[in-house]
Amino acid sequence: MKRRTLLTATAASAAAASLAACGSGTPGESKDDAAEADGRTPIEFWHRTFTPFENEWYAGIVSSYNDAQEKFFVKDVEVPADAWDQRVKSAQAAGTMPDVYTDPSTMDEGARLGQFLALDDLLDAEQLENLTDQAKELVTVDGKVYGYPLLLEPQSALFWNKDMFEAAGLDPEKPPTSWDELYATCEKLLPTLPDGAFALTTAGDQDTFAWATVGQQFQVAGHFPITDDWSEADAEDAQYEELLGFYKTLREKGYIPKQPLGAYVEAKAYGEQKCAMMTSGSWAFSEIASDYDDLLGVTGIAPFPTSDGDLSASVATLGNFKWVIDAKTDQPDGAADFLSWCLAGDVANLVPFFVGTQFTKAPARPDVADAVQAAPEAADAPWSAVVSEDIAPASVPTPSYPWDILLAMGKALEKGMNGEDPAKALSGANGEIQKVIDREELAGKAPRD
């Protein structure tokens, strides 16, 4: 199974590479303009550097679009990930943003600041309707659509090593679903693990807690740490105290390391079997498949345990990557034609992306999801249905209020994990959130829906 899966990924990567003959040049630079000599209208498209396969897919889809029509010519610009934020800030300040670019942020602030062009009059209504409800929510602000999602991506899931479970006398096919079950699982695992290994790895710093635990925050309290109308902070909730206590227990019992074994977004510690269970985003399966293929057949994935074991809602934060059109573009029709052809058109354009990324991301369109599940390679990826059917639909989209509010809760979680009184940590977060509300004049700016 592992060999077939990896060969499939290799074949898909090769196919993307063959399409990329006219793809991007040096990362962060536009490709040769010679192909514009035939008089086609140029469109500039930026995307950050992703995995090798994703970069090839981006270059390939641009090349395919340029070959499919003769009116527009898209320049593909790949920007190094570590330079993306500064590059975008500089371009926005100078008024030199590309016509189309990828964006993982929430839509509300960009829409309010007039950074994105609404798509309602540029794309067919049917194309906008052909999105999942979650995808629509992510890109709609006050009734208008400001972006088109490529994918939905759960930012927290539980991965476990079935061999390690079996060695500890645990059912390798039955992961924990509640906090109490997770504690019990960790207790059984600890005596059987190699020296220096831990039962579990999780988020461990304030920045990661800020975005990776949004689903958990909503699950335990039933609300975000700000009132629905964005007028007041609402972080001082006893249910939030329980969440801080959960991470404190994991730390005090030695179930998780005192210092992170690696970045939350990476699977290296798990791949090196320094932990029996790992919390990471669904993307981690891609790394396991490519770098630790010997573990692929013994790795399970499930929603991360909730406080009460109910896995039907709020099990994770739902990330996304969408394409947006810059509000100042000189070519709105061309930008929309490109975006529409790539993301809202033929499902055949999108299926290779989800197959090549090892079925670790959920499509934003139901028809694409059906086609991906029907792909022959899906039979070798039993985790695919877990990601797209069990985790993504039960996840909470990242809220659209400012990052500083997310970070205030991330700080409180880190403090609580490190032993600070939960009530005190949350009181501090509440004060920080109120400062952001007052400074940004957020009252009354909450999304209508």
Structural overview:
This protein is of the alpha/beta class and 449 residues long. The protein is 43% helix and 14% strand. It has 2 domains: 2-153 and 319-393, Periplasmic binding protein-like II (D-Maltodextrin-Binding Protein, domain 2), CATH 3.40.190.10; 157-317, D-Maltodextrin-Binding Protein, domain 2, CATH 3.40.190.10. The protein has helices spanning 2-19, 52-68, 84-94, 107-112, 125-129, 133-139, 162-167, 179-189, 206-212, 214-221, 238-252, 268-271, 284-291, 332-343, 351-356, 366-374, 383-391, 403-417, 422-440; strands at residues 41-48, 72-79, 100-103, 140-141, 144-145, 148-154, 157-161, 198-201, 275-280, 299-302, 317-325, 362-363, 396-397. Helix 9 packs across helix 18. The longest helix has 19 residues, at 422-440. It is globular and about 70 Å long. The two termini are 45 Å apart. Residues 1-35 have low confidence and may be disordered.
Summarize this entry quickly.
With 449 residues, the chain is of the alpha/beta class. It has 19 helices and 13 strands.
For the structure shown, list the relevant keywords:
449 residues, alpha/beta, D-Maltodextrin-Binding Protein, domain 2, 2 domains, 7-stranded mixed sheet, 19 helices, globular, disordered N terminus
Morphology call: globular
CATH superfamily of the largest domain: Periplasmic binding protein-like II
Report low-confidence residues grouped into runs of 5 or more.
1-35
First-residue to last-residue Cα separation:
45 Å
How much of the residues is beta strand, in percent? 5-15%
Number of domains: 2
Quickly count the helices: 19
* Average pLDDT, all residues: 89
Amount of helix = 40-55%
State the total count of DSSP E strands: 13
CATH architecture classification of the largest domain: 3-Layer(aba) Sandwich
Q: Name the CATH class of the largest domain.
A: Alpha Beta
Note the main sheet.
7 strands, mixed
Work out the radius of gyration: 22 Å
